[in-house]
């Protein structure tokens, strides 16, 4: 079983990944953030480091998916390979932060990679508005995220909504993150788990 959690920066993906992995006793696959050699440089100079960062993430997530398929484990994955190509890279390109040459190269690599993989059994999309995202980003206090621009978050949100509207690769569960607190409120977590169970195993 492969469950993947999608959502904008600060939407709660990593938190929910850990909680669901514990509940279902699945192996968590977290996004490579702490050891990423490009993230801080990217937020300091997006145009210079956008291609490097996206290639790093693409490679990291492809490796994760290969590992998931080879080990045949039950896995909860923090962010998908599709978000890189459908949201983050084209957003950087449209904002003038990634050249057309780099974007075309990136897309070519992604198209090749995705031809070798299959989508998750369930995609969970965490929908959050900008104030919620900003609040969560500030609460976790990562220094390199202090310079994230509001227009950047907004454009990412718009692309997420467009992507989710057309997503048809597999089962999809949309969770509205307004007034939901996984850590502080066990009822909120239980409610999400009930929805996941219904999608994966049906209603009994």
Task: Please characterize this protein's 3D structure.
The radius of gyration is 17 Å and the shape is globular. With 204 residues, it is of the alpha/beta class. The two termini are 20 Å apart. The chain has a single domain (2-201), classed as P-loop containing nucleotide triphosphate hydrolases (Rossmann fold). The mean pLDDT is 89. A 5-stranded parallel sheet has the order 2-3-1-4-5, with helices on both faces. The chain contains 8 helices and 5 strands; from the N terminus they run E-H-E-H-H-E-H-H-E-H-H-E-H. The chain has helices at residues 13-24, 39-44, 46-71, 81-94, 100-114, 130-140, 150-166, 186-201, and strands at 2-7, 27-29, 75-78, 122-127, 171-176. Helix 3 (46-71) runs antiparallel to helix 4 and helix 4 (81-94) runs antiparallel to helix 5 (100-114).
List the helices and strands and how they pair.
Layout (H helix, E strand, L loop, with lengths): L1 E6 L5 H12 L2 E3 L9 H6 L1 H26 L3 E4 L2 H14 L5 H15 L7 E6 L2 H11 L9 H17 L4 E6 L9 H16 L3
Parallel strand pairs: 1-3, 1-4, 2-3, 4-5
Helix pairs in contact: 3-4, 3-5, 4-5, 4-7
């Amino acid at each position: 079983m492969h469950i993947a959690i999608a959502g904008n920066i600060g939407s709660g993906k990593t938190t929910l990944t850990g909680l669901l992995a514990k509940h279902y006793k699945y192996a968590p696959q977290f996004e490579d953030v702490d050891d990423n050699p490009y993230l801080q440089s990217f937020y300091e100079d997006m145009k210079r480091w956008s291609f490097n960062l996206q290639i790093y993430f693409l490679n990291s997530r492809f490796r994760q998916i290969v590992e998931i398929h080879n080990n045949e484990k039950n896995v909860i994955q923090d962010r998908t390979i599709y978000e890189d190509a459908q949201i983050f890279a084209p957003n950087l390109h449209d904002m003038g932060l990634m050249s057309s040459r780099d974007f075309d190269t990136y897309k070519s690599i992604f198209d090749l990679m995705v031809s070798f993989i299959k989508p998750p059994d369930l995609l969970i999309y965490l929908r959050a508005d900008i104030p919620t995202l900003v609040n969560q980003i500030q609460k976790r206090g990562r220094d390199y995220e202090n310079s994230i621009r509001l227009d950047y978050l907004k454009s990412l949100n718009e692309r997420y909504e467009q992507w989710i509207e057309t997503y048809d690769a597999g089962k999809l569960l949309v969770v509205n993150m307004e007034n939901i607190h996984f850590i502080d409120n066990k009822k909120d977590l239980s409610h999400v788990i009930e929805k996941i169970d219904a999608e994966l195993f049906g209603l009994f």
